[in-house]
Design a protein that fits this description.
The protein is mainly alpha-helical. Among the domains are: 39 residues, no CATH class; 32 residues. The chain has four helices and two strands, in the order ααββαα. A two-stranded antiparallel ribbon has the order 1-2. Helix 2 runs parallel beside helix 4.
Length: 113
């Protein structure tokens, strides 16, 4: 149990990403121009886009990335579970950095109005 504690503690950043996604998305999108041509996208609808990306990227991972990784690593799983966790954590950190930049710009725009 103690050996997996560092992995568990490192997922705190991932949970921050998930919390940020669910709490600030509507607030951020309310300051955005959500017009797509003549159609106006409601701010709450923008929460659907991450789910759509997951629905597109999951099969892409299974059919394109995983076979490529299997050829390179010569293992059935392609990459180990620990490598997957590490990749997700690095991508989560990048996502949080981008979210920080977006939120900083949103707050500056909100205070200008």
């Amino acid at each position: 149990m103690l050996r997996i504690l560092p992995i568990f503690m490192s997922t705190i950043m991932l949970n921050c990403c998930l919390a940020q996604l669910s709490t600030f998305s509507i607030q951020q999108s309310s300051t955005m121009d959500t017009n797509l041509g003549s159609f106006k996208v409601p701010p709450a609808f923008l929460l659907v886009f991450p789910i759509l990306f997951i629905m597109v990227l999951a099969p892409m991972y299974d059919h394109a990335i995983l076979p490529f990784a299997r050829k390179i690593t010569r293992t059935e799983t392609g990459i180990t579970h620990l490598q997957r966790i590490g990749t997700v954590l690095v991508l989560s950190i990048v996502a949080m950095a981008v979210a920080t930049l977006v939120e900083t710009k949103r707050k500056k725009m909100a205070f200008m109005v």
